[in-house]
Amino acid sequence: MKNIPELQHVEMLVLIVKHGSFRQAAKELNISPPTLTIAINNLEEKLGARLLNRSTRSLSLTAIGQEFLNDVTPVLNDYRRVIDN
């Protein structure tokens, strides 16, 4: 059984994809970009898969990253709905 990733790290991934940037996501989270990078590296390690293609100029989801995001988004939405009610 794989390690279960932290929910916070999954939400960080969502923000990175939303902003298309580690820097902008880190700014919204009020954390440093290196801290965010460590969290995403931890998430990828726990899942045993690379989720993001990174370069100095671009950022994109890998095929596995896109599949993961598609699968986890409804779960996150349900979680938020339960917490908000």
TrEMBL record:
Ranges of residues in domain HTH lysR-type: 5-62
Cleavable signal peptide: none
InterPro entries for the chain: LysR_HTH_N, WH-like_DNA-bd_sf, WH_DNA-bd_sf
Gene Ontology MF terms in the entry: DNA binding; DNA-binding transcription factor activity
Tree of life domain: Bacteria
Alphabetically ordered keywords of this record: DNA-binding, Transcription, Transcription regulation
Family of this protein: Belongs to the LysR transcriptional regulatory family.
UniProt name for this protein: LysR family transcriptional regulator
Lineage: Bacteria, Pseudomonadati, Pseudomonadota, Gammaproteobacteria, Enterobacterales
